[in-house]
Amino acid sequence: NVKPLYICAFYSNRRLAPWQGAAAWVKGRSLDSIQLRAGLRKGTYLGIYSREEILAHEAVHAVRSGFDENRYEEFFAYMTSEKRWRQVLGPILQRPWEAWPFFICASVGMIWPVGYLGAAFWAALGFSRLIKQHWRLKGAAARILEKTRDARTTRAILFRLTDEEIKEFSRGMNIDIFAQKQNCLRWRIIRNYLKGDL
Length: 198
Fold this sequence. Notes:
Blueprint (H helix, E strand, L loop, with lengths): L8 E3 L10 E6 L2 E7 L7 E2 L3 E2 H13 L9 H6 L5 H6 L9 H11 L4 H35 L2 H9 L3 H8 L4 H6 L4 H11 L3
Parallel strand pairs: 1-3
Antiparallel strand pairs: 2-3, 4-5
Helix pairs in contact: 4-5, 5-6, 5-7
């Protein structure tokens, strides 16, 4: 339920890792611009990512740039993906640098086999974090769905929650009691979603 009016975007490969199709550049707590890989001028990157999918992904980062909450941001961004496997596995990397230890260990493994052990350990850490965070998001979504009875409204509320709120709701914290104690604009909007007014 978010529709940005405009987003400043430009094409450039500068400062993008080889696996990145784009990047959202945030200054302070607002989006400055979205950088798209030059190859996206043709409409796709690596033959698997469409420009529209990447723009939708980066738009999620743009919308959530007012938060300083990055634990679930990639999960929300990958929810816009056209492919189910990307929605599930995409958030394994939450920050671009997290791929480098895996690649370095795998490269070392070509010379010393113990490097493969390091790569496997790093991948296992990533998968365990991915599973735990999917489980928490699913748990929080289930608690919200009990109140809203609508999957779209549930996603709209989840999208507006902080990392800590997602964690607490997944543990069973009462949403109604918590919502009534909040006075900020964000929670006034969420309360309207819970009542079915939006």
